[in-house]
Amino acid sequence: MAIGCFLTPILGGQIPTDSIPLDTNPLVAMLSGGGALPILQHAVLATPFLLALSILLIRRKVLQVPYRSLGIVFAAFFGLILATFPPSSFKGTSLPLTLEWLSYGAALYATVAGVGRRSGPRIVLLSIFAGCALTGIKGVMEFGQMKAVDPNWRIFGGWVNPNALAAILLVGVFLGIGLAITETGLPQLLCGLFTIPQVLAVVLTKSRGALLVLVLGLILLAIMLVIWCVPKFSKKLSLVATGIVLLSVGFCCILAPLAQPLLPVNNKASDVRITAEQSGLGRLSGSGLATDQSTYFRRLLWKGTGTLVKEWPTGLGMGNYRFFSAKSGLTTQTQLAHEGYLQLAAEATILAPIALALGLILWVLQVCRAPESLPREQNVLRASAIAAVFSVLAHNTIDSDFYYFGIGIVTFVLIGVTLLLSADAVAPEFTPLPLRRAGLGAVALLAIGLFYAGGVELLKSRLRFELIQRDAESANADSQTLMKMAWYDADAWDLSAQIAPSPQEAGARLQSAVEKGPNTRILRALAKYQADQGQPGLAVTTLNRALELDPNNLTTLYKLMDLEQQTNEPDATRVAERLMGVEDTLYYKIRSLPEMVPTETFAAREYLASQTPSARRKVELLVPAVQGYVEFANLTIPQVISQVAAGGDYGGENIASATRKLQNGVAVAKQVQRLAVEIGDRSVGTVAGNAVGVLEAALAKAAGSATK
Questions:
Q1: In Å, how far are 107, 134, 365, 459, 638 from 46, measured between CA atoms?
Q2: H-helix or E-strand containing 430?
Q3: Per DSSP, what are the bridge partners of residue 430?
Q4: 8 Å CB contact between 302 and 339
Q5: Neighbours of 249 (CB within 10 A)
Q6: What is the helix, strand, coil percentage profile of the chain, to 5?
Q7: Phi and psi at residue 66, in whole multiples of 5°?
Q8: pLDDT tens digits, residue range 413-464?
Q9: d(Cα 203, Cα 213) in Å, to the nearest integer?
Q10: Do 403 and 160 meet the contact criterion of CB atoms below 8 Å apart?
Q11: Which of 46, 127, 158, 607 is the right S-S partner for 33, CB 3.0 to 4.6 Å?
Q12: Residue 55 in 3-state DSSP?
């Protein structure tokens, strides 16, 4: 249990997405904490908890279990999670997510049954704290390395995004305070000192929600400590808590000036939305493009998710929210709803968050009983663990924290630990042999299922890499294995279609992929195949099917426009006008990545301009496109350069693709210059000339970064 609790905050920060090409040893990929093999990584992290529970079921006839009503409610909650799998439309995605959630339940019962009520809870809390401390230190070091590249860098600490990192670090901060109060000597000093980098790391994530939750959690912790510990109050309690707070504030004050930009802020109007973000920790002030877009985007996500709850009362299936997230037409497709309870309602029916809420209410009633009957040190540890759980539950209202494996499993372990630290919240129960055997079988199936899903993920990642390397022999062998092993997985069939021995076989595999999981990406792949095979009518039908899931999807609309251009110009014009019209929607204006300026609508404007003989109408269509390319140069290119320097890309954009778009923008701007002369409009010519200068300067920066 201690091993699992230590490793989970370090390596549990990724979420399953489309498989990433695996260009290294699988063990190295898992230990690095990267996102190449998150499912297999989670299977390994779940193993200590499943092994502990298995040993208990084998060796003990009497097992400690939660208070009966609480145990029943949590069992019902995890039963609802399991029940969402059979009707899921995307079983390849649902299987690993369902198993991961069930492992949370296994961790809860393993904690209650095996940790004990004396030294065990302290060991578990120390293990979680140590893992969080190491992650926090890693994040602070990351900022030091990246500051020269991007002074506005938000740290990741090996996690998938800064907000998720902030959530797990909050757990470590609250546990650190409780451990620093209750420990003595050197352990006390170490707990206090290692709490500091976690506070710093929370600040460097620049998550406003996390800082708000930190303040609320500290208030809650202070109230519990006063109520539960004042009769036995000691100076050590106040001195340690005050010292941690003062040191944290002091370090943050020292760090703030260091996080200022290396270059002067440019005050040009076109750069205003950037400069609001370039003040280092200025994001925390709540001003600027990214913070505003983040707030509004969340609201749109929540509204869209609410419509999914109404439309699919039986649930979408665990992990399937991302395929339906854009159906409302309010937002682009998003992996998470940024509201864990709402996403749970969409994926596992409204009953799931209700059952979870009922379980948490019963948990609060149990863990807050009879503090006067417990030792002061136990009350302090209990209070800090409750504050840690509260931080996750509170932050889950603005992010889908339970969907990050490291946060989810740690939360349920802490729920179990708080039950053990409370008065009469758990009880030993005689467990008949048949029931223990059934439980052991369920745990074994869970472990097998996790590693099976991880093996499928490993095969898909290897196959992606082999396709990139054009290793046809290895790719063909792996695709054959994958189709047999993951016959239910749409991605497996989609990848195998890329190495099919004939076009007919490729089409058959793509059809199977659509049957297993008709997401927009696979539907576009099928449409391309149909168009290549001389079936434009079928391709149009397939693309329209994709638009049912994401009616404003720019890539799908662009491909539909391109296809219609070859077959039916009136329909192409209609699609181009629809594509251009997306610019006026919240879908376009409020984006998940605010600095990621899409360019597909500019292509629609260029096509419509090519269809009209009027020079003035051409200018009306192309000037907004030129302005859009300038926005792309000012907002997107700096982010692309920064992320490429860090070894990644920005929203799928890299230097090569960004360069092509800039070059196209220069061509359009020069066309507008010529048209301005033709219609005698100097102001338009000036705008276009300035745009050429901005775009060519951005091209030079991109070329320079590529050289480096």
A1: 8, 20, 29, 20, 39
A2: strand 426-430
A3: 62
A4: yes
A5: 11
A6: 75, 0, 25
A7: -65, 165
A8: 999 999 999 988 888 888 899 999 999 999 999 999 999 999 999 999 999 9
A9: 12
A10: no
A11: 158
A12: helix
Strands, E assignment, 522-657: none
Pull the structure tokens for residue 595: 């600095």
Is the CB of residue 595 less than 8 Å from the CB of residue 634? no
**Two tokens, residue 47:** 């193993």
Write out the H or E segment, with its range, that includes residue 427: strand 426-430
Helices (H) and strands (E) in the chain, counts: 31, 2
pLDDT at 507 over 90: yes
Q: What is the dihedral of CA 601, 603, 606, 607, to 10 degrees?
A: -100
Distance in angstroms (rounded) separating the CA atoms of residues 487 and 448: 17
Residue carrying structure tokens 């008949």: 432
How far apart CA 311 and CA 353 sit, in angstroms, is 17
> What long-range pairs does 576-583 form, CB within 8 A, spacing at least 24?
576/604, 576/607, 576/608, 577/604, 577/608, 579/554, 579/603, 579/604, 580/604, 580/605, 580/608, 582/552, 582/554, 582/557, 583/624
Helix or strand or coil: residue 62? Answer: strand
One-character DSSP codes across 535-563: -HHHHHHHHHHHHHH-TT-HHHHHHHHHH
Please name the amino acid found at residue 445: L
Task: Work out the average pLDDT over 126-148.
Answer: 93
- Residue 9 has φ and ψ, to the nearest 5°, of -65, -20
CA 676 to chain centre: 46
CA distance between the termini of the chain: 46
Strand ranges for 11-80 from DSSP E? 62-66
Three-state SS string across 588-627, please? HHCCCCCCCCCCHHHHHHHHHHHCCCCHHHHHHHHHHHHH
Could you give the CA distance from residue 258 to residue 279 in angstroms, rounded to a whole number?
11
- Could you give the C-alpha distances from 88 to 17, 251, 335, in angstroms and in order? 17, 49, 17
Q: Supply the pLDDT for residue 22.
A: 80
Q: What is the mean pLDDT of residues 280-307?
A: 71
Q: pTM higher than 0.90 for the full model?
A: no
Percent of the chain at pLDDT above 90? Answer: 64
| Backbone φ, ψ for residue 62 (5° rounding) | -110, 120
H runs (alpha helix) in 60-118: 68-83, 91-114
